[in-house]
């Protein structure tokens, strides 16, 4: 999830502002303990919840429970529901999404029962935020959009005015959902809708948050100057509202922009501001990022001692919060600073840790460049074809005009002209047919060339990533062995085993693909027992499945035999089984067989994360757009399913898939009956 975006919850009686000083907090705590009655105590608990919810979530949970309990004591369902809603919000921020959803659903049921549409919309928004934090985009979008519909209906009916319903906040959350899925066009659309709505109701704070979102999109596109224009325009708004939480994140983003623009002075200015603000409100993660940028600023100014000290503080926060990006940036600062002062032992140690932590430096830029050049080539080729067709059309028009002007010629000449015209048309059609065939062949060659380039870009990325991990792990192993650190060696050995398995699977598929492409593979069909091949594969993959908490079961009929090449069938079943394991977390994988007409159908069914409909259309092609990581961040190339599809086709069969997101997948392989 993008750390720079502020996801918007709704509160009721308390403003979720973390902007009070430590002294004010202590005064509130004393006031809570010494409150003369339950009503004052409840209101104080709400204020304390608002202070702690973004900084010390366990303290926030304690005060939310107090709000709920005091609501029951006062026999006030509204106050009790506020406490329940606070608990839902706090558990979302804590990361216990199931518990959070339970509390929010209780509130939704309550408001539905009493017919409170406005608070239903607020609660649906908070449910959407919970699912957004859990990265369940489907449920997140459903709840946000349902909240939007209720709010729009309330305004349309005149039940409440536009400003009070706060439609802009939920539109902002819809935009954030799309932004977290890297759908920048939809994100920009909803940020703009939120901005227009906020401006219409003169809501300067939400207008600023929408502009902040648009600034973050510019930051994602590496358009740092444009991002700074947005950020600078909203800084006075957050400052005027004393919204220190938003200011802390804003200053971090501005520091990042100036770092990328190599403006050392402004980088230092905003990194210091970000550090002070985030420290004051107790937002540790944002404070850590600010310290990391500050360390980078000291490094750029050759103040290496201060760079080391500041980056070490940032690293400590990153390790405590287990924030990989913060750890990687701090490691990089430290190894560059130590190298600059001549402490090469420390520099080497931190460089190894940086390489181990930051595994996503390499991207498929080459494949993207190829796609871009290919698109340009196709556009130019279409323009050339249009020009050629226009020229041919002009020639035909001239020929017709000439024929009309010679209409009174002798019949013999006319007959000769008709014969000549017939010959011209015949040869023209023949040439046109040849040209069409040539264009089709060129298009196929372009497609194959594009597939080849995309394939090698994907393969080089995965091989480079795995081999780089092996190299880094080897150096770390030597380092840990010298320090006799057995615990880290044990953890490292598990990572090495996983990498070795992934490389082996990748190379097997690469070899099979290469043989197929070189036309060196000829299937040799023979009667085969599906069950025998399945049992052999289960023995190979069962340890990997058990490591993920999966069980593999086979109900393949002993009598179901197919006519297929054994090597092909093994590759097909191996890749389908490996795919099921990769995208299933703690569930069940079922292998089964049936008879449909003249086919023997092999099924591989899992209870995994499923496949979105747009991805299913290109599932068996080599296309980086369909590549995604497994449930434990396992890498893939998309080559396995392509191989399975090709080998089934070469054996006279076909492959089908049935899947719904989050409801598992079933791959069906149709083979000839033996």
Q: Quick recap of the structure?
A:
With 674 residues, the protein is an alpha+beta fold. It contains 25 helices and 7 strands. A hairpin with a 2-residue loop joins strand 4 and strand 5.
How is the secondary structure organized here?
Blueprint: H1 22-33, H2 38-52, H3 57-73, H4 77-94, H5 97-114, H6 117-133, H7 137-156, H8 162-165, H9 167-180, H10 184-200, H11 204-220, H12 224-240, H13 244-260, H14 264-281, H15 284-300, H16 304-321, H17 324-340, H18 344-357, H19 365-405, H20 411-482, H21 486-517, E1 526-529, H22 530-547, E2 551-554, E3 561-564, H23 566-582, E4 588-596, E5 599-606, H24 613-616, H25 639-650, E6 654-659, E7 665-672
Helix pairs in contact: 1-2, 2-3, 3-4, 4-5, 4-6, 5-6, 6-7, 7-9, 9-10, 9-11, 10-11, 11-12, 12-13, 13-14, 13-15, 14-15, 15-16, 15-17, 16-17, 17-18, 18-20, 19-20, 20-21, 22-23, 23-25
Coiled coil: 367-451
Enzyme class: transferase
InterPro entries: HATPase_C_sf, HATPase_dom, His_kinase_dom, HisK_dim/P_dom, HisK_dim/P_sf, Sig_transdc_His_kin-like_C, TPR-like_helical_dom_sf, TPR_rpt
């Amino acid at each position: 999830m993008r750390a720079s975006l502020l996801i918007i919850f709704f509160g009721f009686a308390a403003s979720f502002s973390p902007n009070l000083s430590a002294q004010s907090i202590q005064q509130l705590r004393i006031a809570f303990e010494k409150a003369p009655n339950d009503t004052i105590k409840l209101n104080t608990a709400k204020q304390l919840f608002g202070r702690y919810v973004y900084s010390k979530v366990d303290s926030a949970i304690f005060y939310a429970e107090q709000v709920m309990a005091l609501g029951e004591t006062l026999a006030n369902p509204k106050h009790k529901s506020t406490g329940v809603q606070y608990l839902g919000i706090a558990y979302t921020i804590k990361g216990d999404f199931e518990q959070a959803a339970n509390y929010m659903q209780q509130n939704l049921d309550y408001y539905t029962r009493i017919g409170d549409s406005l608070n239903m919309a607020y609660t649906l928004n908070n449910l959407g935020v919970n699912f957004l934090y859990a990265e369940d985009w489907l449920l997140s979008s459903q709840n946000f959009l349902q909240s939007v519909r209720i709010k729009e209906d309330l305004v349309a009916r005149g039940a409440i005015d536009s400003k009070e319903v706060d439609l802009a906040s939920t539109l902002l959350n819809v935009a954030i959902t799309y932004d977290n899925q890297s759908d920048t066009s939809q994100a920009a659309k909803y940020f703009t809708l939120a901005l227009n709505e906020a401006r219409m109701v003169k809501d300067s704070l939400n207008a600023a948050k929408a502009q902040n979102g648009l600034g973050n999109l510019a930051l994602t596109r590496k358009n740092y100057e444009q991002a700074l224009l947005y950020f600078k325009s909203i800084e006075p708004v957050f400052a005027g509202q004393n919204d220190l939480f938003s200011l802390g994140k804003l200053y971090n983003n501005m520091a990042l922009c100036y770092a990328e623009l190599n403006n050392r002075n402004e980088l230092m200015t905003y990194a210091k501001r970000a550090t002070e603000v985030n420290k004051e409100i107790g937002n540790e993660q944002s404070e850590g990022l600010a310290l990391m940028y500050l360390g980078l600023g000291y490094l750029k100014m050759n103040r290496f001692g201060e760079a080391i000290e500041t980056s070490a503080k940032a690293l400590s926060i990153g390790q405590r919060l287990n924030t990989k990006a913060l750890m990687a940036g701090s490691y990089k600062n430290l190894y560059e600073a130590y190298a600059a002062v001549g402490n090469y032992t420390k520099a080497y140690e931190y460089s190894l840790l940086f390489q181990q932590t930051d595994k996503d430096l390499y991207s498929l830029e080459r494949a993207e460049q190829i796609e871009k050049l290919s698109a340009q080539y196709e556009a130019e080729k279409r323009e050339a074809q249009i020009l050629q067709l226009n020229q041919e059309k002009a020639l035909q028009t001239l020929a017709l005009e000439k024929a009309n002007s010679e209409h009174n010629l002798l019949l013999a000449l006319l007959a000769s002209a008709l014969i000549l015209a017939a010959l011209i048309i015949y040869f023209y059609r023949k040439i046109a047919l040849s040209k069409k065939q040539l264009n089709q062949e060129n298009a196929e060659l372009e497609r194959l060339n594009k597939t080849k380039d995309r394939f090698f870009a994907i393969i080089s990325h995965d091989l480079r990533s795995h081999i780089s991990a092996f190299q880094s792990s080897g150096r770390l192993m030597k380092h840990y062995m010298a320090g006799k650190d057995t615990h880290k060696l044990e953890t490292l050995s598990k990572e090495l085993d996983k990498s070795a398995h992934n490389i082996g699977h990748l190379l097997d598929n690469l070899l099979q693909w290469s043989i197929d492409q070189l036309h060196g593979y000829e299937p040799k069909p023979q009667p085969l027992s599906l069950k025998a091949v399945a049992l052999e594969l289960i023995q190979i993959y069962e340890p990997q499945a058990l490591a993920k908490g999966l069980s593999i079961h086979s109900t393949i009929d002993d009598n179901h035999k197919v006519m297929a090449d054994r090597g092909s069938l093994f590759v097909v079943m191996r890749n389908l089984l490996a795919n099921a394991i990769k995208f299933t977390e703690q569930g069940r994988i079922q292998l089964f067989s049936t008879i449909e007409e003249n086919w023997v159908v092999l099924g591989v069914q899992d209870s995994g994360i499923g496949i979105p409909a747009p991805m299913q259309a290109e599932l068996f092609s080599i296309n980086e757009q369909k590549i995604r990581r497994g449930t434990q961040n396992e890498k893939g190339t998309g080559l396995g399913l392509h191989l399975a599809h090709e080998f089934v086709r070469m054996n006279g069969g076909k492959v089908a898939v049935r899947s719904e997101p989050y409801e598992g997948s079933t791959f069906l392989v149709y083979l000839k009956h033996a």
